[in-house]
Amino acid sequence: MLTAENLTFGYTKGKPLLENVSLVVPRGRVLGILGPNGAGKSTLLRLLNRRYRPWEGEIRLDDSPLTQFSIQELARRMAVVPQNPAASFDFTVEELVAMGRRPHHGLTGALSREDRNIAEEAIERTGLQRLRKRPVTLLSGGETQLAFVARALAQQAETMLLDEATASLDIKHSSEILSIIRRRVTEEGLTVAAVVHDVNVALSFCDEIVFLSRGGTMGPDKPEVMVNTNTLQEVYGVASDRVAVYEKPLHVRSRVHGAPRE
Amino acid sequence: MSNGSSKDNADEGAHRWSTAFLFAGLVLTLLILVPAGLAVGPADLGMTEILRSLGGQATETEDLILWNIRLPRMILAFFVGAALAQAGVVFQGLLTNPLAGPYTLGVSSGAAFGASIAILIGLSMWLLPFLALAGAGITLFLVLLISGARKGLDPRSMILAGIVVGSIFSAAISFIKSVSGESLTTIVFWILGSLSGRGWSELAIFLPYFGIGVVGLLVLVRELDLLCLGPDHAHAAGVDVENTRKLLVFFASLLAAAAVAVSGVIGFVGLVVPHGLRMIVGPGHRRLALLSILAGGALLMGADILARAMSFAGQIPVGVITSLLGGPFFCILLIKHRRAPSLA
Contact, B173 vs B112, CB < 8 A? Predict the structure, then answer.
């Protein structure tokens, strides 16, 4: 379980980007973090991963304050799939995935047989067997993202943070990545906090949604409760006659459509 | 990646094969370079004299030239080359940019500036590395300050800042050179980078710094694999980003500064060796760091032998040779790989 209480943080003194942000992600659930561009969603993930420390407030992972863990300990419990990951230098897919074993290494950094098996499993789960020898620099956007998902899986953490992990991916790769993660959630009780750009993705992927907009948070609650024309207007500032929310059109969940202004 | 075992690991096998092959090749090269390094020089002493000296039948002068001039100079060439190449691996990995190196970041010029001051005020040789280190430190501080490193290391602005700060220090060295008069030739040799006249005492000064730097880097270098994916990734995978970066910069600068302190500014070794190795064995930094010791050492030994072999043309600083060889080589690399994504 991942909880954040009254987080306040900003990059410049006296100018908080996040104020009094609170959220709870129960074990084995997926929380979607939504909000307009610049609301501080990625920053919130960085706080949750302790990349930065909040000015105020506390984050707890399974009831222990985040500050109690060393960076390495934290990495054993929490993995991150980044937004539009870019690989510099041509590491192969296999090498990249194996880097996920880093937090489990000793001083020498040598990979054990077990490390290799786990990395191998992550490659299989993401269907990257065919590309294992390919330098990451030569992969397509979707394949690169899959490789970074595999790296995060190899980390074998119980909590995973996704930063717009499927933004800019085509529908196939996007659904592939989401179902891989969903399976970990159902089968292993993975806890997920995901920054989601696309409201429709959030509706189909997340168990709960929290809105982040200037001034704090709304929610978290069930997607169908959170997403309606009023909340969308409030959070994204889109006029309520410009969006339509369809209730379960594909026997899944609600769909949202934005229309261009005439 | 070491000890992989599955059958379908053909490519990785190839990688490791080329690592092993390269390792063997480098060791072999060194085995050839050692007698060559002993046999080449202005004094007419060749293999016969070496064998005679090993048999204890050479004259005192021959012994002196072989074991107190040529041998230490050769060993120093190896370690200085190794240090520069290691520093290059680290700077390139940290900045994820194959153009980074102790030279392009201004660290070498800064160290040379410190060394020039030491020469100018006539400090003892043992203090020289400290001033070189201080010069390197000040340069790094300025480069980080100018490039706005508080928001994270930005390779492009760091290299630009490095070139600017380096130029300023080079100009400052020229200024010192102009006002110093007597110590002029020493400083000139410093700037061009030379191993001539260096012996056991320089080696003794250099080795402690080399030891500390290399051990520190070999422990930390594996983190570079993750660091070059970006600080957020590295952190998420358990790397203490800020401290690791600081230590890596410190150890790499220590190596570069110590190298400058004993041999002046020798360009291109720190640029070409890591880049060339990465093309052969891939970007894994542990592999690169280990191989760069041998490759950098062999390269500078070879270049120094060449410099000595050409001594009929007067004293040629080894830095001139490495730049003459390394410059065009690097141009070829750039042209060949300018479309490669790894250079983007």
Answer: yes
Q: Which two three-digit tokens encode residue A146?
A: 């899959």
Question: What does pLDDT average to over chain A?
Answer: 86
Whether B142 is covered by a domain: the verdict is yes
Amino acid of residue B224: L
| Residue from A160, A128, A164, A165 nearest A147 by CA | A128
Range of the domain at B93: 71-335
Which token pair is B129?
A: 């590395």
Average pLDDT across chain B, whole number: 83
Q: What is each CA distance from B78 to A114, B29, B297, in whole angstroms? A: 39, 12, 4
Q: Is the Cβ pair B238, A76 closer than 8 Å? A: yes
Number of folded domains in chain B? 1
B28 within a domain of the structure (yes/no):
no
Domain A1-62+159-170+187-262 has CATH 3.40.630.10: no
Q: Rounded to 5 degrees, what angle do the CA atoms A184, A188, A190 make? A: 65
Q: Which residue type occupies A67?
A: T
For A:57-116, CB contacts with B below 8 A are: 71-72, 74-76, 78-80, 82, 85-92, 94-96, 98-100, 102-103, 107, 109-111, 113, 116
What is the pLDDT, as a whole number, of residue B151?
63
Helices and strands (H and E) in chain A: how many: 9, 12
Question: What is the rounded (10 degree) CA torsion for A70, A74, A77, A83?
Answer: -170
Q: How does DSSP assign A152-182, residue by residue?
A: HHHTT-SEEEEESTTTT--HHHHHHHHHHHH
Residues B275-296: tens digit of each pLDDT: 889 888 888 999 999 999 999 9
Q: Quick check: B4 and A95 CB within 8 A?
A: no
* B190 within some domain: yes
Chain A residues with CB under 8 Å of B2 CB are 110-111
Exposure letters A84-115 (e unless 16+ CB within 10 A, then b): ebebbbbbbbbbbbbbbbbbbeeeebebeeeb
pLDDT in tens, A213-225: 876 788 788 888 8
Residue B278 near residue A137, CB atoms below 8 Å:
no
pLDDT-derived band at B344 (thresholds 50, 70, 90) equals: very low
CATH number at residue B163: 1.10.3470.10
| B214 is a domain residue | yes
